[in-house]
Structures are given as C-alpha cells and as structure tokens.
Specification:
68 residues; mainly alpha; 6% strand
Length: 68
C-alpha cells in the first residue's frame, strides 16, 4: 500500500510539470530537434545568450501527421 501511494504521488508530481507553456517543453510533452532527438531544456552558449531555439513540438515523430 505504501509503495502504491509513493508511485501515485510521483506520477501526480510529474503530471503537474506538463503543460506549463515553457518553450523547452515538459517531461510529458517535450520538444524535439530537427533530427527527432528529444530536448527538455535549452542551454545558453558561451556568451550566456539563448538565441532562437531550433527545437519544436512539430519535429517530434508523435506530433507529425502523415499526408495521404
């Protein structure tokens, strides 16, 4: 019973991180680079600048729609 409560609490905590509208995505809804690799956050370059992110949700294979 105790393990079940801990597991349910962990799931609820992770689900709470989803959908915050962050440009870097969330644990349950990440963004992807053009090659399809998953990105959770953007890091600054050597000058501590962020620039334009190349990652987007459209690059993820599960967000792409197939055209027939």
């Amino acid at each position: 019973m105790k393990k079940l409560l801990i597991a349910m609490g962990a799931v609820a905590l992770l689900a709470g991180c989803a959908g915050r509208g962050e440009p870097e995505g969330s644990f349950l809804d990440p963004v992807c680079m053009p090659d399809g690799s998953v990105v959770f956050r953007q890091l600054p370059n050597d000058k501590d600048e962020f620039g334009q992110p190349r990652a987007s949700k459209a690059n993820c294979s599960w967000n792409q729609t197939t055209k027939k």
